[in-house]
Amino acid sequence: MRERKKICICFPFMGDSIGGSHLSALELIKRLDNFYFYPLIVLHKKGILYNYLKRRKISFFFLPLKYFVGNKKGIFLNIKNLFLNFYKLKSFLNKNSIQFVHSNDSSIHLNWIIASKFSKCKFFWHLRIKFPDWRLYKILINFSDKIICISRYVYNTVPNKLKFKSVIIYNPISLLDKIENKNEKILISKFSKFRNKKKILFMANIIESKKLDIFVKSALEIFNKKNFIFIIIGSDKYKIFNKIFFNLKNKKFKKNIFFLNYSYNIKYWLKNADILLVPAINEGHNRTIVESMLAKLPVIASNSGGHKETINNKKNGWLFQTNNYTELAKLTLNFFKLSKSKKEKIKIQAYKTAFNKFNPEKNKKKIENLYRSI
To answer: 19 lies in which domain range?
Structure first.
């Protein structure tokens, strides 16, 4: 009997960075029904994601590209780069008999969509951010077959003319198992001496919209009243943490800040911190918030973007006014004054929200049904 032909779905990534969108996509790939679907991961650069997949022994195809649409401004330069990549990507799609391309970030959307259309592949544009005001982006997204929005907030930013092919599907999220990492193991061993101190966590790839400055300002106000520990975890390509840390005058406060460029053991930090602070703005959705809820770690987040769809204020977490670091500090200090039973009630509600809304199996089935419908 002839073997059933599977639907080949290509998942391209840059490869030099990793964030919530990558982890959610990998969660989906891992859970796809392998009777019907054959996922093919493609990376263009060596870097954090490349090493992450190697460590986890996840197979992928390395397809280096020299030019990238979206790296620099200028519509003519980007159109030129689009065509420089066109034949290489089209050849790859045809050679591997790929039927679907499932794209998960802006650079991949822009680089792959034209080659996909000429290869007669269906293109899924996974929109994980607020719809950007960029002319080329607005033009190319029209060639997508489906736009998958990760929250109602993201969906509401999509132009009305594209709403008919847009759908809201929340990310599939679970807590990942740890991987041993030398630098992290060293920090964890050092960290053990602070076992009895309260620990406040910030975890995100460090870019302007994540508002690390608000976290640090709030942390200083907290430290002036309570001798707590502050943990900052996130890739800092733009050296934002270094600039903020260098300008701090309080030496005692600086000694209580711990920085880790990237964590391979997220579960450890979520289980060993006392609270997560998320000052980021205009987030399509925030994976770390959901991971914290699953780990029963309380969360205080800015009243912005997709946060409001996950956190029900004072029920399963807390929301604070965007950029108001004084309010964030006050809410954090108030949290530590709550009774044990009140904290436990918040944690249980948070866990239920995260488990039900971002359940990997349930949301994976929605994606699979979308594939089948096309």
So the answer is: 7-172+359-373
